[in-house]
Amino acid sequence: MRQEENHTTESAHGPLTGMRVIELAHIMAGPVCGLMLADMGADVVKVEKIGTGDDSRRFLPPEIEGESAAFMMMNRNKRGIALDLKHEDGKAVLLDLLKNADVVIENYRHDTMSRLGLDYDTLSAINPGLIYCEISGFGRTGPYKERGGFDLIAQGMTGLMSVTGEGPNRAPVKIGPPVTDITAGILGAMGVSAAYSSKLKTGKGQRVDTSLFEAGITHTFWQSAIAFATGVAPKPMGSAHPINAPYQSIATKDGWVNVGAANQANWLNMLNVIKAKYLAEDKRFSDNQKRMANRAELISELEAVFVTRSTDEWVELLNDAGVPAGPLLDVLGMHQDPQAVSRHMIVDVEHPVAGTVKTLGTPVKFHGTPGGVRHAAPVMGQHSREVLQEQGYAEDAIQSLIDAGVLGESEQPLGSRRQLHGE
Prior knowledge:
The protein is 37% helix and 15% strand. The protein is α/β, with parallel strands linked by helices. The strands form four sheets. Strands 8-7-6-1-2-5-14 form a seven-stranded mixed sheet, with helices on both faces. Strands 9-10-11 form a three-stranded antiparallel sheet, covered by helices on one side.
């Protein structure tokens, strides 16, 4: 297997190899940031609350051998330790880890880190090169800085829900995936990577501050452009595009097909494929501006043609002619799609308790310094001893921390649950 194809082994290395990250984050936005950095080769050590861990460990069902599927998805490629940060010895261990870390990620409420004595000013005095990534609901400044943040709230306040749904004056619809959580994590990873580039040149760290609120706003480029230009807030349009037509789902004989015939060349090419050249002569549809103005009539005319064939037939015909088109897959269908498989976006990893589990792959491919999915998410406290040993702690000191309830480690031999099931 060529190195760039090795997406699931410990030997995979990415462009961020050598970066040391301490993740003090839970549930989604912060863990997405850590996941992205880990996929690109960073050594991400996830610090969890002793006893309970990341809240997503209790997002059940679904579960595999008692392990939360949600937690395993968000925390692959990371090592995990468990610490009691309310105990002075636990805080001392964390501060020790942060002394030679490149990055710390946190996504707590605005004053949590300050109350723990882990604010930026305190940590940067210990480690001037530390990159301090803060992901919150609304950012660390401004009138909403003290508010907690959730994806649903952010989607509502950033205009996303105002343009999502079948049409105006209908019940509000949230975008299905938690897009502001995920995007905030990606923005955090982008910011950390840029700050790391600066650190390599200057030796200095800095704060990186982003939020679910800003992540949601980032998704409104087209809609904000319309609102800035017209003074009118765009409304929901179902699957249609606010600027181009036809660019939406169209009914077929057995379902729906997405067609992207937005520019004039694709429009005329599509008409040739579907044998509806007469629509090119229709003055209502002669250019994009007129097609947008008469979109309802346009889609009615097109559906009269598209319902004569199946989705698969249209996808093949249109793509063969160079017209962008695709089926509407559910998530399981996407998992089985040959393009997703060939791009290593669906991969298997070995979890110490759950066994072989599937996870999503790395969305950015580096052909010179390939990253990838190296290992599954840690069980609670799986790497507590290992990480402290690397930090120079003696075995008796580690055991003393465990005996005092300050440091947590795996509660049972790894793999024992599967062994109990006869696997």
